[in-house]
Write a structure and sequence with these properties.
- The chain is an alpha/beta fold.
- Helix content is about 55%, strand content about 20%.
- It has 7 helices and 5 strands.
- Strand 4, helix 6 and strand 5 form a beta-alpha-beta unit.
- Helix 2 crosses helix 3.
- The termini are far apart.
- The model has no long low-confidence stretch (mean pLDDT about 85).
């Protein structure tokens, strides 16, 4: 993929997701205050900590959008980032309930693990076909609440990261407090 093709793709992304990064950040900070959707909370954690989790990501290009114009049936990407090396990095997230027990829950977890890998690998292939991007220019990752996914990424060329449900909740409470403190400071300045 040449620089021109990357540039074309970045322009496409800015057209279908024109919100400035600051607006997206405010959206995710709002989710932290009302964590009813656990998947969205996980995505907020990822977005607000992207430099710690995937330090090679430089700019969010798409969030919950189809990378292929007008073909939402081909699947939406949770996140698409431009990397520091000018590659495209596709991330799929999955909140996997690791606290539930029993055979049925083990099967459900396994199904979720397999599905998230299948999704990101399929998206990578569709990206490559549609945008004529060399597979070497496309990287993909999976971010979940299940550390068990780590070994699955090795053979599939997928970068895997996880945060425990306990750590996610601890972070949510701390982040919410810090937002509250910041809002109080701002209101006292005015």
């Amino acid at each position: 993929m040449t620089g021109d093709e990357i540039h074309k793709f970045v322009l496409y992304c800015k057209k279908i997701q024109p919100q400035p990064q600051e607006d997206i950040k405010r959206f995710f900070e709002g989710v932290v205050g009302f964590p009813y959707d656990k998947e969205l909370l996980l995505q907020s954690y990822l977005f607000l900590n992207i430099q710690k989790i995937f330090p090679f990501c430089s700019e969010l290009l798409l969030f919950e959008k189809s990378p292929i114009s007008d073909y939402t049936d081909l699947g939406k990407c949770d996140f698409v980032y431009l990397t520091l090396a000018e590659k495209i990095f596709i991330i799929e997230t999955k909140f996997i309930d690791t606290t539930a027990t029993g055979a049925t829950e083990r099967k459900r977890r396994n199904k979720h693990r397999n599905k998230v890998f299948e999704q990101v690998i399929t998206l990578k292939s569709r990206f490559s076909e549609y945008w004529q991007i060399n597979l070497e220019q496309l990287e993909c990752g999976v971010f979940t609440t299940d550390p068990e996914v780590a070994w699955r990424g090795n053979g599939a060329n997928v970068v895997t990261k996880a945060v425990s449900i306990d750590k996610l909740e601890y972070w949510r409470i701390g982040y919410k407090k810090s937002l509250l403190i910041e809002n109080i400071r701002v209101s006292h300045r005015h």
